[in-house]
Structure formats: C-alpha cells, structure tokens
Design brief:
The chain contains ten helices and twelve strands. By secondary structure, the protein is an alpha/beta fold. Strand 1, helix 1 and strand 2 form a beta-alpha-beta unit.
Length: 291
C-alpha cells in the first residue's frame, strides 16, 4: 500500500476511531497531526484556524458527539456539534483545497427496511433520531462546501468497537461478570447491524482515499448481526458459562431509538477495491484484550 502524499490531520484523535487512524498513519510512515480537545473542540468556532497553522493536505474528521441519548435530549446541541461544526470545517477545507473525509453513520437511515438488503449510498436519507439527523446535516453541509470538486469523502460506518475499551464487547463482559448465579443477561435481539472493528476500518479509510477521488461510501466489517448475536459471540469466547436472554428494544426505556435495521451495503467500496473482513474474524482478534 502506497503512502499518502502530504500531511494528514485527524480530528478526535483521542477517540476510538481517531486513535486507530493515528496508528494506521504511523504504521505507513505518513505524517499525522492529532487534533484533539481542548485544541480542537466541536464547540469552538475558531478550531478551523488549525488549518492555517498545520497546513494538512487531508483532514479526517472523526470527531463527533456520539452520545445518541444525549443528542435526543439536546437536539440543538447535536446539530451544532455534528452539523454546524462540519459545515465550518468543510468550507474552510474547500477554500484551501484541502481534502476532507467526514465520518458518518448508518443512523442517517430510518432502519425500517424490510427486504433484507443493506442500505446503499444513494438510498434516501431519513433519520429516525436526533443523532442521525445531526450527522445527515453534517453530510449535506460538506457536500455543499465542495460541490462537484474532488477531495471530499463521506464514509458511513456503524457499531464501532476497539481500544481503549468501554465499548459494546467490554460492556457485555462486565455485565456478565455482575450476574448472580442462574441469572440471564438481557440483550436486544431486534436491532441488526454490522459490528465494525476500528483497527480494520482505519486502514480501509486510508485505502479508499488512495483509490478514489471523492464520493460517499459505506465501510463496515462484512456480515450482519443482531445485538444479541454480537453479545453471544463475545460471551462464547470470553464467558462461555454465562447466559443471555433476547429482548426487544421496547423493553429498554431510552430517549433515543436506534434503527431496527442498520445494515449497510458495502458493494460500492468493494468495487473500488476496499473490503473489510467478516465481523466474527475481526472480533476474535480483538477479544483477547477484553476477556
């Protein structure tokens, strides 16, 4: 894999995906510039001044407010952090001729699809919650800023996990460890998506930038699973003596409702030469850090 040309800035460099991106860039010898809080903050309207200071050739915008319940409680704040912040960054990058990768989400779709197919890039966006709406607004703002010019990539992904812990697999193991003898751990069985390992996603994003000049792409580990399936795979490897109980989303009272069907079709990225491995294989590599 050839090296990216120039310097790459990563927003949210201290987050889950940001760390994986910094590691992937370091592995290939590309100059990586971490933009993390408090230096880069989604609430700071002057954060784009870092473009002039650091002069990157590409910015990967991995920073976001991903607290979906928080977004539901404060939709205006979600819009400012996930929509307006992208607008400022995209306009500043486009003016300077700097490439931009915007990380988005499967939650821009309403999750009501019932034909068993994954959402494709050109399917109509119809967010079912405030988080998805704010991320869709960020996508739209970036497209307006770049118009038909090359150098803008929107990468939708889903169900991220990986270091530094406190992700879904780690939470399942911790919850299983708290069970009393004979108890079962309730896990949602009517929400389907694709668990995606950040250590796989990060190099795939870099590869996509090399192989294409712009576009919207879906990148997730191959395959699909319910939350229950995902938890069962975790416990089968980490706590095989623990038991699960399938439940519906309705049994959990939350401010936000996740898409019941969050599967993304990755054929477009695969046609460009970028494909992630099956989610079970990725999870197996990660779980020794959790078990």
């Amino acid at each position: 894999m050839s090296q990216l040309v120039g310097r790459v800035a990563v927003t949210g460099a201290g987050g889950r995906l940001g760390r994986a991106l910094m590691a992937a860039l370091a592995d290939e010898g590309t100059t990586a510039i971490p933009w993390r809080r408090p230096e880069y903050d989604l609430d700071d309207t002057d954060a784009v001044l870092l473009l002039g200071r650091d002069a990157p050739h590409l910015v990967i915008h991995a920073a976001a407010w991903t607290d979906v319940d928080g977004c539901a409680r404060e939709p205006e704040l979600a819009q400012r952090r996930n929509g307006d912040a992208v607008d400022r960054l995209a306009r500043a990058c486009a003016r300077r001729g700097v490439g931009l990768v915007v990380i988005s989400t499967n939650e821009v779709f309403d999750g009501r699809r019932s034909d068993g197919r994954g959402y494709q890039e050109l399917d109509a966006v119809a967010p079912g919650n405030a988080y998805g709406a704010s991320k869709a607004a960020g996508e739209d703002a970036a497209r307006r800023a770049y118009g038909e010019a090359p150098g803008l990539w929107i990468v939708r992904t889903a169900w991220l996990y990986g270091p530094p812990g406190n992700d879904f697999p780690a939470k399942i193991v911790a919850a299983a460890d708290r069970l009393m003898h004979g108890q079962e751990l309730p896990v949602v069985a009517d929400e389907t998506g694709s668990p995606t390992y950040t250590a796989d996603l990060a190099p795939a994003i870099l590869q996509l930038v090399r192989l294409t000049d712009r576009g919207t792409f879906h990148l997730v580990n191959e395959g699909r699973a319910t939350r229950y399936d995902w938890a069962a795979e975790v416990l089968s490897r980490c706590r095989p003596d623990r038991r699960l109980r399938p439940v519906s989303q309705r049994e959990f009272s939350r401010p936000s409702v996740a898409p019941a069907w969050g599967v993304l079709d990755t054929a477009r990225a695969a046609a460009a030469g970028v494909r992630l491995r099956d989610w079970r294989s990725a999870l197996a590599d990660y779980l020794p850090e959790v078990c």
